[in-house]
Each structure stands twice: as structure tokens, then as C-alpha cells.
Amino acid sequence: MKKIFAANWKLNKTPEESRRFIIQLKNDLFQAGSFEKNFFEKNEIILFPSAFSLEAVSSLCAGTQIGFGPQNIYSEKSGAFTGENSALVAQAMRAQFALVGHSERREIFKEADQLLNQKNLLLQSLKMTSVFCIGETLQQRESGQTLQVCFSQLEAGLKNLNANERIIVAYEPVWAIGTGRVATIEQVQEVHLALFSQLQKMGFGQFQLLYGGSVKPDNAGALLKVPHVDGFLIGGASLEVESFMKIIKAGL
Ligand code: PGA
């Protein structure tokens, strides 16, 4: 199975900065000779720029196998929803993916399970792939509810989805996001194994499981060895090509 390296740039990077990133990334990937020709047979790169930079990312990724998409979409394709982003418009910009349910969306913007489910259903109807984020808060972990919370987010968010279509699930413990406090290997192992079995029980055939939360060049190698960790959703360390590349290289 391919390893996925997904970059969540959050509210960072102008279109020009996004362009510069991709020029340097393409140079490192294709020209510097550091990667095998068949790199994309074994790996997948997905960039999540802010919506205003999507067009710039799209034009620079054209003709490459670098995937991309918005960090959020609304649950309706179009209509009177001032300020929202349309999956249909993103698709017109050739986006193949979208993040759904990032903990910052759940917490700061109060997005609830039902809305996230509608977003996942819309993406599936457009043949786009959701990178659906789930994860527990520190309080939930400390009170022993980690798996229960993750399973209920999965059940609610993936309700009525066609289990034969591709889905990417990103396990991101909220307390590990942007904190420098990465989950231990044992914690990641336990949750990923449980999520793997749960998704199978739910009938999903084509899914990949990402870990996210303070992934850095120095912890990426060990995390990638954990069974059922198929790649990463990377925030802070994806903002510079150098650290992003080091994480990718940790998986080679
Ligand atoms: P981080 O963010 O790598 O900066 O912890 C991950 C994420 O929010 O997806």
C-alpha cells in the first residue's frame, strides 16, 4: 500500500509562498535525483493549502502526481451560503481530496458529526476523497474514552457512505496537535489497530489510516513502522520543504 504524506498548511502561505514551496518540492523530488523514478508508485503526496491558494497550488501541480485539496468544504455544492467553500469549485480546480472534521473545525467552528457526515457524503458523490479526521481530547483520553470517542466519530461521520469507495481516515489526538507532544508508539499502535478492525467491521475495503499530531523528521521513522500507520497528516513540519522532505525520506 502507498504511504501518504499529507501537508495541512492551515491558515498559512500566500499563493506566492505556496508556489515557491511546490517549485522547491518538485525540484527536490524530481530533479535532485534523490528519489527513484517510481516514487509515486509507492508514495502519495497531498497538499492542503488555504482556499485562497488552491488555484496557485493547482496550476503548479498540473502534470505531476502531487495531489491537493481544500482544508474544508461546505456540505452543499452551491447556493446561499455566504463565506463557505464549494467542493464543486475545488473540483473544478482539479482538487481530488478535501480535509473533513479537523479538530480545529470541530472545536473552533463547532462542526458537529452530522454536518461532517454530509460533507463526506457530498465528497463521495463527487468522486472526491475525504481525509476524515478523528481523535480524542486530553480529557477524553485521561478518562479512558479514547476508542469509544474515535469509534463514535467514525460511525457518525461515515454513516451511509459507500464502503466500496476510497476513504482516508486521519487519527489525530487533539492533545498532540501543534503541541510538540506526539503520541507514544504504544498509543498510536493501540488506536490504529482498533480503527483498522473497526473500519473493516463497518465494511470498508479501501481505506488508509494516517497519524497526525506533532509529526516531525525525528519521530516519523518510528511512527511509520507502526502497523496500520499508512502515512501522516502533517501541520507545522509541512510548512518548510526541508522538514517535509525529511519526513518523506524517513519512510523510504
Ligand atoms: P501538527 O498539526 O503537525 O502541527 O501537530 C497536525 C494537524 O493539525 O493536522
Could you characterize the architecture of this molecule?
With 252 residues, the chain is α/β, with parallel strands linked by helices. The protein has a single domain, classed as Aldolase class I (TIM Barrel), CATH 3.20.20. It contains 11 helices and 8 strands. It has helices at 15-31, 39-42, 54-61, 87-92, 103-108, 113-125, 138-142, 146-157, 185-201, 217-224, 241-250, and strands at 3-8, 43-48, 67-68, 97-100, 129-134, 167-171, 207-212, 231-234. An 8-stranded parallel β-sheet has the order 3-2-1-8-7-6-5-4. α9 links the parallel β6 (167-171) and β7 (207-212). The longest helix has 17 residues, at 15-31. It is globular. The structure holds 2-phosphoglycolic acid (PGA). 2-phosphoglycolic acid (PGA) is lined by residues 8, 172, 177-178, 212-215, 233-237.
Protein structure class: alpha/beta
Q: How far is the first residue's CA from the last residue's CA?
A: 13 Å
What is CATH's topology name?
TIM Barrel
Reported for the largest beta sheet, the result is: 8 strands, parallel
Global geometry: globular
Query: Which residues form runs of ≥5 with pLDDT under 50?
Result: none
Q: Helix proportion of residues, in percent?
A: 40-55%
Oligomer: single chain
Hetero ligands? 2-phosphoglycolic acid
Our Rg estimate from Cα atoms comes to 17 Å
Give the percentage of residues in beta strands. Answer: 15-25%
CATH architect. name: Alpha-Beta Barrel
Strands, total number = 8
Strand order across the largest sheet: 3-2-1-8-7-6-5-4
- CATH superfamily membership: Aldolase class I
The overall pLDDT, averaged over residues, is 96
- Count of discrete alpha- or pi-helical segments spanning 4 or more residues: 11
